[in-house]
Amino acid sequence: MRQMEADVVVVACGMSGLAAATQAQESLNATGGGTVVAFEKSGTVGGAANMGMAFLAIESQLQKENMTNDFTKDDAFNYFMDYTHWRADAKLVRRWFNMSASTVEWVQKMGVEFLGVFKYFKNSHCTQHMVKAPGTNKPTERCAATMIQKIHEYAKEIGVDIQLHTSVKQILTGSKGQVRGVLAVTDDGEEIECLCNCVIIATGGIGNNVDMIQQYMGWKWGEDMTSFRIPGIDGDGLNMAWAIGAKKNDVFMEVNYNTPGTTDVFKTLSEVMRQPNLLVNLDGKRFFNEELMDNTTYTGNALLLQKKHMGFSIIDSKIVEYYKEHGLDYITYHHAIKTMDRWEHEKELYFSGAQSDVENSVFASEDKDVSYGEDIPQNFFEFQSIEEMAETLGINLENLKKTIEEYNAMCNGWGNGYDWQFTKDHRFLKPITTAPFYVARHFPSGYGSLGGLQVNENMQILNNDLDPIPGLYGCGNDTANVFAGNYCFFNPGSTMSYALNSGRIAGMECVKYMDSDDFIDPEE
Prior knowledge:
alpha/beta, 524 residues
């Protein structure tokens, strides 16, 4: 067994772990030096954040320059605490928001550039600091990978030892319950014992572990939940921390929704079918104010209450023609679909069977037993009649006809009606009258799991008595109970922001701990 020593060990090197390792090394270097070792079981750093684009910050210099700084840290704090009904740790939320602007400057010093600050949807706050991808001045999917590369380069430059292809299997503790090291193993089977003063857990939750998703959330992946599955995010950190006495906190999904085989594959089809048009369940009834479909958390939550966790967006040929002439009701920068130019082309591809080709879809999984794989069900349809629609999709025909009749009466033509049921804005009331009819079948999804380990505002992991486990820290999704069960899309960029800032806090605080009166020698 190979022997190693470090002041700080970081378990996993995704966004939060990379931030934690980098900040810890900076803090050590500023106080006389020390060693940070980060173990990452994959072959790269950044984890799920490589798919991201932006992160939240409040009162940053970029917001001031863009004149979007009217949403203050006080506003953000009060809004977030109201949104979570004070189920979030107020001290941690306050610390996170207060340091968020400095985190923008922190990564800028490493060479990270930003396009500006953006909303996610029309009613969200302008908090997303969009990373600039090389060679373009437009928002670009997965552009956060550029930021991760810059942080990675800087981390190595200042002395962080990143051990790739190495999995941590156990956290070692001393006689007083204090952390004293970890046991790890390389992909080649070499065992490592690394003794240290502090351990920071940053393993990203359980997003790839279908058994734990079903155990802790009750959802069967591939049937009623189609969340992102990033290989390697299997709950390692939660299980290791729980094994040494960490409090087992709630685990939930960062809920949104998608149309498997369409979302992130056929982007025009996907965006058209996410417009604020009629949405029904298997009973053939409306269940949601479709005006809110651009808030993916709200839509996903509503879907979770339906039979088989599914809903059906319905449009007709007149709506298609309207969008071709006038453009979509909602345009998101994420997919940047502004026209119907590719509608016919994507339809042809989809109905030719190309929906089975999900190789590049973020919803695909290496586990063919639980993924949609090559046999992904059809989730986008064209029908010539309401009867055909109901029979094919298993929707209650009598209720569906009644719902469409009532909905069309609400529309009172185009844009003149009143939604007496859910108060949808009259501008989005478009009747369903003329074949062909197009339907998308939506399911709840999620970017990944949130929570599992309870921490305080210093990112110390707490035991069942809510006391810190000496030398044990956490950050990122493993500790993200701060969202209290519902991701706040009104403050977009929050997950990556929490990863970055909680990582920085963990890195700072573990170094402070080693110089404090509370420090317990690992060898005691």
